[in-house]
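Q: Got a minute? One more chain.
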Amino acid sequence: MNRMQQSIESAQAIAASDALAVERTLAGERDAFRVLVERHSHNVFRLAFRMTRNQLDAEEIVQEAFLRAYQKLGQFAARANFGTWVYRIAANYAIDRMRQKQKEDARRQAPGPQDADGIEDDPVSRVPDAAPTPERLTQSLELRKQMEHALAALSHAERTAFVMRHWEGCGIEEIAAVLKLNSSAAKNTVFRAVQKLRLALQPLVGRSTQARAMGTES
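A: Always. Here it is, folded:
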């Protein structure tokens, strides 16, 4: 048996086990839903963290996604894969949460602390480095920082499309379902996100390094 066939059979077994857990939950066995949470919470958290870049937000998204899944479990009957279903719930809530937080941050935005020269005072810059940083490490840190800035500059739809496609390996149809777009529009959103990230990272890295950083290396 080759590896691909084993992977397919494993996915089918998980889907069947999930379906059984859903049936038991709907029949009143509360512990059955815990199986679904334990099985899929790691993947949901990974998606949420990559979208928000914030652990607390990601944890909130995981909790809310499974709460909504539990509340709407009766609607799952005709669906084939619980993992995909809760994944979409999480992605949709993450988009809503990012929009809400963006509005909250805009309302609370205020000038940062400044020193006597009127230059913004960054406390992190005052922390002494215990050891000299190699040039390669410096470049890696700069790249990571630039990548975070570039991701933050994307629209919510572009960031979601990029994360789902290139970091989570989702198909275009799944991305389209989350973003409520047709397949062509979803493809264009992924392409647009990749082009913007390439442009943002170009000053720091070459093509191959850039592809590795973005997770899109062929």
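A: Residues 113-137 have pLDDT under 50 and may be disordered.
Q: Perfect, thanks.
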